[in-house]
Amino acid sequence: MVGAAIGAFSVFCILPLAYMIAVALSEPGRAALYADLFLDYRQRALLFNTAILGVGTAVAATVIGVPLGVALARLALPFKAGLRIVLAAPALIPSYIVGLAWLYFGGPEGLPAALFVLTVLLYPLSMLIAESAIRGVEPSLEEAASLAAKPGRVLWRITLPLVVPSVLAAALIVFVLAVSDFGVPALLRARVFTTEIFTAFSALYDFGRATALAVPLLSLAMLVAVISVRLTGERLVTRRRRLGGGGDLGAFDRWRGVAALTIACVVASTLVLPIGVLAIEARGVSSWAGVVRGSGDAILNSLTLAAAGATIVSAVALGLGYVRARTTGAAGLLGDVLFVVLFAVPGTIVGVALIGIWNRAGPAGAVYATNGMFLLVYLARFTPLAALALAASIRHVPASHEEAAAVSGASWLQTLVHIVVPQMKIGLAAAWVVVFTLAFGELGASVLVSPPGESTLPIRIYTLIANAPPAQVAALALLQVAVIFCPLAILGFSVAARKQS
User: Fold this and answer.
1) Of 31, 49, 241, 320, whose Cβ has the fewest other Cβ atoms within 10 Å?
2) Cβ(112)–Cβ(184) under 8 Å?
3) Closest Cα partner for 182 from 196, 194, 174, 173?
4) Quick check: is 298 in a domain?
5) Range with the lowest mean pLDDT among 9-18, 137-146, 318-327?
6) Does the structure show a pLDDT above 50 at 113?
7) Which CATH number is 9's domain given?
8) Residue 259 counted as domain residue
């Protein structure tokens, strides 16, 4: 099983990008193309815009996310598990949906608007990593300091210095995800590398230019992954305290009112407002049944493909996550770097790479003309994230349980099915839900590899933005948000019921 998972990971995740890089570096005349691209004024402006988008989003997401992480980790807030899910929900909404709500709200287009929208989408990452890091800080250190210092000084001098590496790693990952996004810059007309790659390939079918533009982003993703893993080490797949555990400090109780007000403002502006804007715009729909019928094939296609993709990705990631969880030292950290790099690769680059591999005569061409290309996109984009998530879950299963099963005569597969999986079923369900929601909203690669006559709901919405009444587009966007939040709500209720029992 592990061998099959590693083989699938190598073929579907590593091979397309390796092929793209090899083509980018080996074709004759490629050096002249690089020189033309990066000495040209327009390309330098492109690089500047991409850098501003990434740095601005990383800073803004950190400013918003870290205080929220402190509140979740150290304050005795009511319904904390529900608050965490609500605050993290924007990260699972497709980026172009929030961008669409921004346009319907009357917001301007351009780079600042893209920066704002991506901050709304990515601050949960900084929040969750900061909370996890703070829960790993020994509370007795803060309790001892609070005897002689005010809470603000304790936070500034004790808590935050201990979590700076994790906060910086989160900021770096947010930076890469911001510069890798396609939907928001494309919708808000911000010229960055991802939109330029899409234009070079889809409009001009210039594979050479697209691969040349992809090299800087791939290099950046690799550099950031190395630094992030270096900063976090083994904490990327394990943590000392569970998110649902203790850690509330009475010294910080005076901040509960301010924290509650801040959380309410963040939820209202990042979740309630975008959905409310779409709902108001969708009131102009004369018949919801007609909207659903008109896009019924795309909706069914998306549901089927996302469910199948999440199941396949989870199966492959289970084997990879097991290997990562039981591997320590340099080999494990190298695996983390590889996972982070592959997850941070922009969807447009993944799409171009998959086309380069599969768009050819023979059996590969037979796959290229089918919906199987969507499944290949999901495998390439989301397997690394699922593997990291499942590795963290498997780390909480003591190895002694497996050793005891082996002593009693159980095979490795029996041990995995009857010992390991039952103890991590919530983590496995969470990984499936996350991959399903991400696959259901995937646009950057899907719009490139979509076979003729086939479509998913994200492609349908993206196409209708310029060709259909806004009310119809808003209605489909609301439908997509509802489908995404349904499994998330079910998972949240399951976790809450498990804790109560």
Assistant:
1) 31
2) no
3) 194
4) yes
5) 137-146
6) yes
7) 1.10.3720.10
8) no
